[in-house]
Design brief:
Elements lengths: L1 E10 L2 E11 L4 E5 L6 H8 L7 E6 L2 E2 L5 H8 L2 E4 L11 H12 L4 H14 L15 H13 L5 E5 L7 H18 L2 E5 L3 H7 L2 E6 L2 E6 L1 H6 L3 H14 L5
Parallel strand pairs: 3-8, 3-9, 6-7, 7-8
Antiparallel strand pairs: 1-2, 1-4, 4-5, 9-10
Helix pairs in contact: 3-4, 3-5, 4-5
The structure holds adenosine-5'-triphosphate.
Length: 249
Amino acid sequence: MIRLIDVCKCFDRKEALRHINLTIKDGETLAIIGGSGSGKSTLLRLLVGLIRPTSGEIWIGDTEISRLSEKELDQVRLHMGMVFQYSALFDSMTVGDNVAFGLREHTSLDEADIRQIVEDKLRLVGLEKVTDRMPNELSGGMKKRVSLARAIAFEPEIIFYDEPSSGLDPIMTEKIDELIIQMQETLKVTSVVVTHDMASACRIADRIAMIYDGELIAVDTAEHFRESKDARIQAFFHTLRTVKGEEPA
Ligand SMILES: Nc1ncnc2c1ncn2[C@@H]1O[C@H](COP(=O)(O)OP(=O)(O)OP(=O)(O)O)[C@@H](O)[C@H]1O
């Protein structure tokens, strides 16, 4: 379980997040949505311990991470997989070496076991034939899938996705969404997905958390979001209907 208790984050005088209280259950997929500058990335960076809260507590399982040392945080991060917005692959390494990187750095597994894991994870994301290719030979969607294979190499309990569909066409976006659902179903992971794409959020998430101007204004199912009378939430659904070519409400 992930728990944020009264979390605030200030940058100089700017209050990026105010009094966030949120519980994410084991095995749940939570989408965090919100407009540009609302605080989504700040929340994700707090959850993975890249930045520390100004006040409040962040619990990952039984560990309160906000006051841990970097070394202690590294131990917690071994249970987390991260899929970054721009894939963040090493351009000078093959796909296989990218997926193997963390295993080589943080485990004493022998090369045969590592190769087996790399093959298994690439197969899981539907990319079994690209192990020896270089990242710059792959499409954006393929890079995202490699990034996901790398994130699951450690069999994490939690996967964090930062805008997984940014820069992808609608068909590839749906494929990545399907993979996120598949990861939850097959690996039973907890998933936290930051997105500004309401259609994606509705497809993948058990619950959606909406951040508006640094505040968490709603955490609920897509169905309840759809029925919400809150103008800030409806504005997001308005864009969804417009994109789909439906008549705005
Ligand atoms: N390191 C920083 N220093 C100063 N201000 C920051 C820093 N990081 C974020 N902010 C500010 O905090 C607010 C929230 O930013 P954040 O990046 O979390 O928004 P976001 O919802 O992820 O936006 P986007 O969708 O555009 O990425 C913004 O006003 C931003 O300018």
